[in-house]
Amino acid sequence: MNAPLFKQMLKINLKGISNYAFGSAFYILLMFWLYPGIAQNTGSLNELMLALPEGIVNAFGIQAGFGSMEAFISGEYYGLILPLLLSIFSIMLSTGLMARLVDQGSMAYLLSTPTSRRHIAATQASVLIAGLLLIIVVTTAAGFIGYAMFIGDRYEFNGSRFLLLNVIALMLFFAIGGISFFVSALSSDEKKALGISGVITFGMFGLDMLGKISESVQWLRFVSLFSLYRPSEIVRGGGDAVLALVILFLIGLAGFIAGVIAFSKRDLPL
After folding, report:
1. Contact, 246 vs 171, CB < 8 A?
2. Helix (H) or strand (E) holding 184
3. What's the burial of 188, exposed, middle or buried (CB within 10 Å: 0-12/13-18/19+)?
4. Distance from CA of residue 232 to its chain's centroid?
5. Within a domain: residue 237?
6. What are 73-81's contacts with CB under 8 Å, separation 24+?
7. Contacts within 8 Å (CB) and 24+ apart, 10-17
8. Helix/strand/coil (H, E, C) string of 82-133?
9. Residue 255, C-beta contacts closer than 8 angstroms, at least 6 positions apart
10. Residue 200, exposed/middle/buried by CB under 10 A (0-12, 13-18, 19+)?
11. 44-101 pLDDT, tens per residue?
12. Is the residue at 270 inside a domain?
């Protein structure tokens, strides 16, 4: 990794990363602020949830109900909004760090320096990973701040499960980011890279949703990385989170390594 390049690219992209981070933090704080009012009607909400079709409950990740703070946010935020937010972030930043620079000709300036292609690609990958890490750290910190400000000891909150929820979200988008980075490293056209990464990412998200809704097509989930991300099971203490973390980490690592190697070997347009 090239430290000066890392600092420069992080500085260039810091405003965008910060927007996602503080947007996520604001939403988490909003969830903690709203929960005391929600908690007073937990019984009615759980009855309403039981009246919904099972497929809808599964699709929106509200199987855990509303009996605890982490169960509430697992469905309201971690089940849908955060995955969409970080999917967009991963696709946009990975494309901006690689394919956009090639498409606009800016990569030629980086390649004219003594830094090798592998070091340039590894540095760009590090910027994406650092961005994801920053968003998750800010989101996690905001959650604990929200708990201290709005919840206290009034309602049940399992901090270790909330922390695990954030760690597995980080690993999911480490994997998604690795795949998107690999696509971007192979592309000379920014729009093409965005399109391919978007189809892969939101295609997997859609397959996972369809598999949740209907048992007849449940097998579709097993071709999606999102099937390894089960926030409602995590907050209930179920599922094999460690296995999911390992698989997602290995997929992400393979994607980033493949992207670095592919970029170092490909022919670039002059």
Report:
1. no
2. helix 159-186
3. middle
4. 16
5. yes
6. 73/28, 73/31, 73/32, 73/35, 73/143, 73/162, 74/165, 74/231, 74/232, 74/234, 74/235, 75/231, 75/232, 76/31, 77/27, 77/28, 77/31, 78/165, 78/169, 78/231, 79/231, 79/232, 81/27
7. 10/127, 10/130, 10/131, 13/93, 13/96, 13/97, 13/127, 13/131, 16/92, 16/93, 17/89, 17/93, 17/131, 17/134, 17/135
8. HHHHHHHHHHHHHHHHCHHHHHHCCHHHHHCCCCCHHHHHHHHHHHHHHHHH
9. 175, 177, 178, 179, 180, 181, 182
10. middle
11. 545 545 544 454 545 455 554 555 677 778 777 888 888 889 999 999 999 988 888 8
12. no
Calpha distance 117→255 (Å, rounded): 17
* 220 domain-assigned: yes
Q: Count of residues for the chain?
A: 270
Q: Which domain holds residue 154?
A: 3-265
Residue ranges in the chain modelled with pLDDT below 50:
45, 48, 51-53, 55, 57, 59, 64
Q: What angle do CA 188, 193, 195 make, to 5 degrees?
A: 145
> How far, in Å, CA of 164 to CA of 203, rounded?
26
Query: How many Å apart are CA 92 and CA 217, to the nearest integer?
Result: 30
Q: How far apart are CA 41 and CA 94, in angstroms?
A: 42
Half-sphere exposure of 33 (CA within 13 A, CB side): 7
Count how many domains the chain has.
Answer: 1
